[in-house]
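Reminder to self: tokens first, then the designed residues, so the page reads top to bottom the way the pipeline ran.
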């Protein structure tokens, strides 16, 4: 590999403000692969981060071509397990059955989950004239399960005593495709709302009723265009489309809104639950830590620990080394994501060095 420097902006452009120009420049070091075509697909949650990483990497490493198709976590896992991609992106760790299946595409090894980008799952809503809305897990569970059907319901009013809530129908929008974002929201509702969310934690939507759309972009667009709607997607989509987002009443002294900083505090409550080189994280959804946003996801890159395709292995290791580096992680708050805790990022870098 060849070490290269790119003079790139360290003051990042806000996706919601095209006129926000970079203010200064800093050197970014990338250890380039000399050549290779690197296909990946999966999570829409990391779509905006992946686009930035690929642009930065390819500006330096001109011999490498990287393509990432944001089809959703379910499709990303399926394509990787078919051997159609060199890495997959998923917002939830592989199931044991998927790990077993991966041995067919990882000769002598198995697929592992490498956390790479974190962030809050924002709950966006469209309620003109109502700002700073706060809800708790139980109320959210009832709204997404068609048991609270109007925005002036007493449970919502109790949490927002000074708000003038309209008698609009609640239009809950969920993902129609298999999605790690969905699975993470299911996990939060099951963990924090308990019996009020009696559904399995799956990538497919489990609640009753509501409206559906495919992908985070479509869910966010539907919320933006429909009064009375509520939906879930990554913070970058809410910021870009200027969608109001809920604060979550966690039991802390103040409700907590989604941001890279509050998501990082939520991620700090996680522990590594994976075995061997697998770095799956486990979250505490009931945390009442001050300033910790509880609806957090981490997107994993799925790769083989051993048995990666030899023609793409140098590019794979080079690219993932950059995304997990201080430079790669350092850009994330500027595009509305949360960087990995450094203790986790260092373990990710160590595993990448051993991929074969």
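Designed residues (356 positions):
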């Amino acid at each position: 590999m060849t070490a290269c420097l790119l003079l790139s902006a360290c003051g990042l452009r806000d996706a919601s403000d095209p006129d926000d120009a970079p203010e200064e420049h800093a050197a970014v070091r990338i250890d380039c692969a000399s050549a290779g075509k690197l296909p990946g697909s999966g999570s829409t949650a990391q779509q905006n981060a992946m686009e930035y990483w690929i642009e930065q990497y390819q500006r330096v490493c001109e011999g490498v071509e990287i393509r990432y198709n944001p089809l959703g976590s379910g499709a990303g896992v399926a394509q990787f397990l078919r051997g159609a991609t060199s890495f997959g992106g998923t917002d939830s760790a592989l199931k044991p059955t998927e790990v077993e299946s991966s041995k067919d595409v990882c000769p002598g090894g198995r697929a592992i989950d490498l956390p790479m980008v974190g962030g809050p799952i924002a709950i966006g809503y469209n309620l003109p004239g109502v700002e700073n809305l706060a809800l708790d897990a139980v109320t959210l569970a009832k709204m997404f399960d068609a048991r609270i059907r109007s925005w002036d319901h007493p449970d919502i009013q109790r949490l927002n005593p000074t708000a003038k809530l309209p008698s609009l129908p609640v239009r809950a929008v969920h993902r129609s495709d298999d999605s790690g974002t969905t699975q993470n929201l299911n996990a939060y509702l099951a963990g924090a709302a308990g019996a009020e969310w009696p559904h399995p934690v799956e990538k497919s939507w489990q609640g009753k009723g509501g409206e559906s759309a495919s992908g985070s972009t479509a869910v966010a667009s539907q919320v933006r265009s429909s009064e009375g709607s509520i939906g879930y997607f990554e913070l970058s989509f809410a910021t870009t489309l200027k969608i109001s987002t809920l604060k979550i009443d966690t039991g802390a002294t103040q409700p907590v809104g989604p941001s890279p900083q509050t998501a990082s505090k939520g991620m700090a409550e996680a522990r590594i639950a994976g075995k061997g080189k697998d770095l799956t994280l486990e979250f505490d959804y009931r945390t009442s830590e001050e300033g910790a946003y509880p609806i957090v996801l981490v997107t994993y890159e799925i790769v083989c620990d051993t048995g990666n395709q030899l023609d793409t292995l140098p590019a794979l290791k080079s690219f993932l080394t950059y995304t997990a580096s201080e430079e790669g992680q350092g850009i994330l708050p500027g595009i509305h994501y949360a960087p990995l805790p450094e203790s986790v990022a260092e373990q990710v870098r160590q595993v990448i060095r051993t991929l074969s």
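The chain has two domains: 2-118+301-354, 121-266.
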